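Q: A reviewer asked whether we had any structural model of the full assembly, not just the individual parts. We don't, so I'm hoping you can provide one. Inputs are below.
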Amino acid sequence: MRKARRALQTLAAVVVKEMKITSRYIGFLVMMASLPFMFSGMMMGIGYAIAGPSAPRNFASNTGVEDPLLYTVLGGVLMIGCMVLIENTSGIIREEQMMGTFELHYLTPNSTILLWLFHSLSSALITLGVMAVNVIAVLALRTSLPSPVDWLIAAGITLLGLLPLAGLGLVVAALTVRFKEVWAVASSVNAFVAMLSGFYYPLEVFPIAVRLASQFLPTSHAAQLLRSLFTGTASSLNLWERLAVMFALGLAYLAVGRAFYLRWEYAAKKRGELSKY
Amino acid sequence: MRIYLRYPAWLVADIVTTPAWLVLFILPILLFLPREQWSNPQTLTMLFWGWIFWDIVSAGLWNFGNAIRREQQMGTLEFLMLTNASRAILFSRDIFSRIVSLALSLTYVYAFFTLLFNVKVVVINPVGVALSLLIGLFTAMGFGLLYGALVLRFKQVGPLNNILQFIILGLSGAFFPVTALPESARVAALALPFTYSIDLLRHYSMATPTLLPVTLEFVVLISYTALLLALGISAVKLVENRLKATGRLGTY
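A: Here is a predicted structure for the entire assembly that you could use as a starting point for your response.
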């Protein structure tokens, strides 16, 4: 009971701290909210310029969705949220080391893994907020917004889709503290996660081997479920089956991330390299 | 060049991630076409050159445009300003590494593009293509100097870089001819120097018609580039003198 209360206090502290820091840089929030629209605008603009008046009909035929703006904005929010989370988690150790505050985390009675995961949770919560704003902005053009229950389900799907990536981020962080070039590795991970998650296209366009690989990404499930939820298109698995798959993937990702991180931490403590960067 | 080659991981990451970014960008656009047109060589070649041109526009904003601010944030701007070196050369030194990186990226993007989309990118006049790209880089440099002077003056640009990038790519017709734009947007497009650069690039690659007669378009582009470079150098000098007079050179 006491452990749980302490964990919640730590969570609140980290989230409040991250929100305060984020609120200092409104430009970042504006960019995060506007980038999905900019990507969508560019893709739709190019698509319409190349395809002419048949563009919307072709899009609907290829994706099963009538509204390309909603489709691409939703994908864009998820993609950017995913990239921010991976980069933040991958870079957190290196950033703290460079600021000279990394060792201070070890003076607290908290688990350092929990601390880094709570950072990721803050990032995911910001993504939720941005998604809500962007989706409402697009859906406001229609007659009805989703129900509160739908929003709750969407929030759950987004969190289940994004949080496991923190495990991936921890792997990158642990490896790159050893090998130094964290941003290059995080960028590479981001590129392939983004490509395989199908944020901007249906995964059916890929060959079967690639489609199979994408099933191991929680974000690919999140993208399909959220599209199905907000656009009303059918999904191949039912909601609860997909959520179960995502939950299992989440546990696996976080377990692997934890294992990598603990291994690096043990080796770094033994060699006296905890603060070395 | 030394700085560029000091971080090989970035170069490797750039090469390794290129196919992923290509798929992520090109596929959503193809969704607006019927399936049977997804392998159309004309369309794909146009998208290929648009992708390469994006690199040039990015150079203008992120490399040249942010060069001054980067020096400021690293605390080395004042030391550079103590020298009697040309400010244009100081803040445009990235041009050399950009020429190398553009040549490199052209090679591996071409290879991946051909592999992924099963299409041979058309290049009718390689010399004309190379010239268009090179002038385009200098255009980006001139634009970047002017933009960099504004960044130095106003400090925080927030998401302006990203917004400008998309506006320039859209208006200059990087991925499609500007004739596809509405009339009002076309006027704005003709005022952008990048429009002529990509137009010439497509002309020499795919033999597409140009907005103006070819020679005239070259003259317009070179004149515009020279003007931007001159304005950029003057703007940097003006802002530098103003900031020195107000003691705000190092504040950011």
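A: Points you may want to mention in the reply: The interface with chain B takes residues 26-27, 30-31, 34-35, 38, 41-51, 54-55, 58-59, 61-63, 68, 72, 181, 183-185, 187-188, 191-192, 194-195, 199-201, 205 of chain A (CB under 8 Å). The radius of gyration of chain A is 20 Å.
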